[in-house]
Amino acid sequence: MNTAREMTRRDFIKATGLFTGGLAVGSLTFLSGCGFPAAPGIDHDAYILDGDHLTVRLDKTPQLSRVGDSAAVIDEKNNIRLIIARTGETKYVVALNECPHREKQLRYDSSSETFLCVTGKSEFKPDGSYVKGPVEAPLRIYRSTLEGKTLIIDLKNG
Fold first, then answer.
1. What's the maximum distance between 2 C-alpha atoms anywhere in the chain?
2. What does pTM read for this prediction?
3. Has residue 1 been placed in a domain?
4. CATH of the domain at 148
5. Are 99 and 119 in contact (CB under 8 A)?
6. Which of 41, 80, 120, 144 has an alpha carbon within 20 to 30 A of 56's alpha carbon?
7. How far apart are CA 137 and CA 120, in angstroms?
């Protein structure tokens, strides 16, 4: 007894449509991985906003536990978008987490000691100066002070 079923035209179109759709979604996922991942975010309970100063509790920020690490403070309610890079045992650099080119997020690359746009097209030194990319604009850097286990960021002077 032959239990094999012939594929109808409708079955063929369904099968190829599903395959093509799956392929398209898979391709989009693959292409969205181009560039670099953004810096990991800091929990809201790890920082306090007090006027023109943002105080980050480093004891609640494991993302910055080692030299070369970086983390982002994204607080849309207060219009704060920062990236913090730990560049030394007691040294941190704080920048606006927004590439001047297309306002994309950044990440810090400790091997080249540069901030990179997640698109992979722009690069900046820790002092904010332009290295390469489509726009020759500097990156905004904020003054910060380390006091014990807290990093105090001056939001007014940046």
1. 83
2. 0.76
3. no
4. 2.102.10.10
5. yes
6. 120
7. 16
